[in-house]
Design goal:
Layout (H helix, E strand, L loop, with lengths): L9 H4 L5 H5 L4 H14 L4 E4 L6 H7 L4 E6 L2 H14 L4 E4 L10 E6 L9 H13 L1 E12 L6 H6 L2 E7 L2 E12 L4 E12 L5 E10 L3 H9 L3 E7 L13 E8 L1
Parallel strand pairs: 1-2, 1-4, 2-3, 4-5
Antiparallel strand pairs: 5-11, 6-7, 7-8, 8-9, 10-11
């Protein structure tokens, strides 16, 4: 991701076949419904997802009559998304590209969901904001989320740890993750230990780490204002009213001005 790299989760590039197992859960549709509710509130019809991955948001929205375009910098994830679109006979255009530089057109809304902007440095995120501004109609909205730096106490960071076991085709995937926080620089670093067993073969183990750049709600509002946006709403990922010391993920809606 350029200078001062933060790293990426293992499944983004090295193990894309496990992306959905790691990133799609029982609450995914509920989160997508919150995003769809915001798009409806601000009368958006055309949507550009600049970090679409395998297509969770764009498939959900396309099935609800939104005209969607998906983009991602990972060719492997886009390959999976295109195969899904073909199998489900859904007309979505997928484009290889980076949210910091890809220029596709002008849309009613741009989205980058599930902490995607956290994989950018602060300078990279500001560059992405300016590029997103370019891809929006005047008055168009940008919807994104990121973990709330303002609540990252030791107790909260410890509570982010998890252990999951999922089946992907003929493989079993076990993932244990825990994290640390550098509050001065706003960096959450996560450590993963994967064990993958295909059929009854000898298991493979992978150790991996990556960081996310986190922000306070106030810092996001300031950055958006400096890059051609006004913040028109901040929420929790369940659509609840944002509370500075209680909300874990900040879901932000900003308008191009």
């Amino acid at each position: 991701m350029g200078k001062d790299r933060l790293g990426l989760p293992l499944e983004y590039r090295k193990r894309p076949e496990y992306f959905d197992a790691h990133n799609i859960g029982d609450d995914t549709d509920a989160k997508n419904a919150v995003i769809e509710g915001l798009l409806k509130k601000y009368k958006a019809k055309t949507v550009l997802d600049l970090t679409c991955g395998t297509g969770s948001q764009v498939f959900f929205l396309a099935k609800r009559a939104y005209k969607c375009t998906g983009a991602d910098f990972s060719p492997d994830l886009l390959k999976i998304a295109r195969k899904k679109a073909m199998n489900e006979k859904i007309n979505i255009k997928f484009i290889d590209g980076d949210m910091r530089s890809l220029k596709v057109g002008t849309f009613d809304a741009v989205i980058t969901i599930f902490n995607a902007v956290g994989h950018l440095t602060k300078a990279g995120f500001e560059k992405a904001m300016r590029n997103i501004h370019h891809n929006l109609k005047l008055g168009g909205i940008y919807v994104f989320d990121i973990l709330n730096l303002g609540i990252m106490t030791d107790k909260v960071v410890a509570g982010l740890a998890y252990s999951v076991h999922k089946k992907v085709n003929n493989s079993q995937v076990f993932d244990v993750q825990c994290s640390t926080i550098d509050r001065r620089n706003g960096r959450l670093t996560s450590f993963d230990n994967y064990v993958v067993q295909k059929n009854a073969d000898k298991p493979e183990s992978f150790n991996h780490k990556f960081s996310l750049q986190l922000y306070t709600a106030e810092e996001l509002r300031s950055m958006l204002a400096n890059n051609g946006f006004e913040t028109i709403g901040q929420y929790g990922m369940d659509g609840s009213r944002f509370k500075e010391k209680k909300t874990t993920n900040i879901l932000t809606v900003a308008r191009k001005i």
